[in-house]
Structures are given as structure tokens and as C-alpha cells.
Amino acid sequence: MIQTSNEELKEKEREEAFSHINKRAFFVVVSLLVSVIVFSGFLTYIVPQGRYLRDESGMLLDGTYTQGTTKGMSFWKILSAPVRVFASDDALTLIMISVFLLVMSGVFNLLDKTGGMRIIIGKTVRTFSHKKKAVVCIITLVFMMFGSFFGMFEELVTLLPLIIVFMLSMGFDSLTGLGVCMMAACFGFSSAITNPFSVGLVADLAGTHVFDGAWLRVVFFIIVYAAVCAFLLLHIRKITKDPTRSLTYENDQKKLLSLDLSVRETTPRDERVFKIFISFFIVQLTVLFLIASIRSISGLAIPILSVSFLLGGVIAGLCVCEKKTDVFKHMGKGAAAMLPAIVMIALASSVKLIMEESGILDTIMHGVIRALQGKNKFLCIILIYFLILFLQIFIGSSSAKIMLIMPIVLPIATSLGLSPTIIILTYCIADGFTDVILPTNPVLIIGLSMANVPYGKWVKWTWKFQILLFAFTVLLLMFAVQIGY
What is the pLDDT of residue 22? Predict the structure, then answer.
């Protein structure tokens, strides 16, 4: 009986380590998001309504802004926003993201329960045991390049659980895994070179070529990559000397205990499981590459990946599990464990809904855009930077922000003598970095939930690095203006 209790306790710890979202982290993030929602509702009582006319594509028409009266949103509308958001214009996107998260969580739970994660990571660690730091830098570069060249960020979250376990098995921690995967992809997205969702779209609107001014973006990418590697290697050196200095040390120990990566004789089943799941990941990487390469399907990345992961996971599970019902049981439990993340996504998306429904988003944007007019180049570029940073709190989509403000900002910038290339650089910088610091970004919430890392610990780990990068980007933009970039 005691043995049974110990096994149940160990299984419970295993579930908490890998499957379930940390309750404390959940309540902290929910509290932050609710505070932002309440603040957004408060703004509706002090900011007047306003509206820009838009063309068929959704772009603002210059000179069409009209201002109305101040009319606060009713209390029930503010409170019901997290539910009503699933009936808004963004409903389809939210549903696709939610399904994507549930499918991905279910598949990785299946991978864990069948021993696939232990087998894959164990073999990989033994292969690269003497090149740990080089592996960190190489993985970071790969994820940054996906973000910079192909505009991939959300899609790469599918690989986060495997990367985290890989880093743990190399002797590092969950934060290192988040750094080489989620942070690297995000920073690559922001230090974009040919990103079609930022560089490509703004270049199309401005009538320029994607490679115009690319030299400075390449230099910026190299500097950011070096900074991320330095940040991660310094962190690795610190936790290597004293593992208890890791902010996620206790939870990581639970994960390592459940992994059981001790060296043991390889069985025929291990070899079969390894081949099946490696084939699964090769297929998923191929799908990722096709999505990145074929522009016509890039907008369908999330549904395509959801279907690919679901079908691939079920097929791999049926090939591995002796009891076929276990496949759906493991996937169902994994999906159910991530349901709290859907709540957080709904809360994060509610902020934009409140701002749009109340009619104050256009008013706020109009006020900032007016502040740009008549200013010198240096001040103008900083104001554009802060405008995009502000909108980033409420609108996570890169293309949505571009269609919202660039038809207005580009003509103003041109009249001040600022080139489209510097506007592209400014937009990329402002649009990307904060994706891994703002609690209103669903991808950050998903990533931290999957890693079981509280938001507060993530901020504590990254805030100094974020401030350093922010200061550097301001200097970079000043330099770009000075040289007439």
C-alpha cells in the first residue's frame, strides 16, 4: 500500500512537472490580464470615441478621422469581453490558436507517456554530451533564422517542450530551453531580414523592395544573435557552478526525476519508438519548412500545423502503443491539462476588443499620429517607435498593426525626409521584442504554461536584458537617422 502511494505521488509530481499549468502562475497572469482589462475599460470613460474610414483591405484613409463623444463602456460588456471575443472578428484566429495548443499539448503528453521523450532525449544527449555550449548557440541561430527570414514565431512553439527537455538533459534548466526556442524565435522575428509579415508587407505598402536597406538589418541581426548567445551562456555558466541559482531549479528537478535518463541497455522497443517519433518530427519540420517557403499557405500555418500534428501524433501513437485506446487517453489528458491556457488567451484578446468596441483605439492612434507631424527626424522616429510599442499591448498581430497605421505613418515619414527602409527597421524592432515580455501576448502565455514557468520568474530573468536591448535599439535608430539610412 505504501509502495502504491509512493507511485501515485511520483505520478502526481510527474503530471505537475510536464502537463499541468502551475496554479500560482495561472492566477498571477490572470490577475495581470484582468488588471489590463479593467484599465482598458477605465480609458473608455476618459478618452472620446473616434473613427477612421477604411478601404476594402482595412487600411486607414488619411484625413477621414472624426471624433465623437466620450461614452464609457458598460460594466457588463467589460466583464463579458473574454467570452464575447469568441464572437468577434478575431474569433476564428482565437479558435485556431486554441485548437492548435490543445492538439500540440496532447501530442507531447503522448510522447512523454509512451517513453518517446526519454528515448529521443537520452540518445541525443549521449551524442552531443561534449559540445553542450556549441549546441545551445546552434539551436539559437536556427530559431532566430526561422523568425528573421520566414517570420515564424507562433509555429515554433510546437517544438518548445522537446527543446526544454533537451536542455534539462544537457544539465541546463527550463529557462535555457525557453531562451533558445521562444526568445530566439521572437528576437529573430524582431531583427528581421526578409520576414514576409513585417519587412515584406511594409515594403509592399511603401513600394520598395524587400532587400532595400537590408545591410543594416543584417548587422542588427548579427548583433542581436551575439547578445542572445552571450546572455544564455552567462546564465549557463552561473547555473553550472551552482544549479540552485536557477529560478526554476525545484520544478526542473521534478522534470528530471520523471524523465529517468539513466544509461541502460537499449531494447528493441526503444529502437522502434525512436524511429517512429523521429520520423514524426522529420515530417513536422518538413511541414514547417513548406509553410515558410510557400507564401500562399503561410497564412494558414496554424491550422495546417494543427492537422499535421494531430494526424502524425495519432499515427505514431497507434504504432507505439499496445493498447490503441491509450493513444486517445494520453492525448485527451494532455489537451485537458492545457485548458487554463485558453482562458488566458481569451483574457489577453479581450483588451483589443474593448478598445475597438468603445471606439477609443482610433482616437488614441490619431493623437499619437498628430504628434508626429511637424517634428524633426530624430523625435519623429522615436514617436513612431513608441506608437507601435503602445499598439503592441493591444494588437499582437504584426500584419494587423501594419494595415492599421502604415498607410498614415509612411506619408508622414516621407514628408519629413525619412526613408521607407528606416520605417521598416523601426517597425520590426517595436513589433517583436515585447512579444516575450507583455502578458497580453498569447504566445508568451502558451510558452510559459507549457514550460511551467511562472510569469514573474520569466520577467525576473529577462527584464535587464530587455532594457539593455531597448536602449541599444534607440541608439541604432538614432544612428540610422544620422546616416540617412
Answer: 57
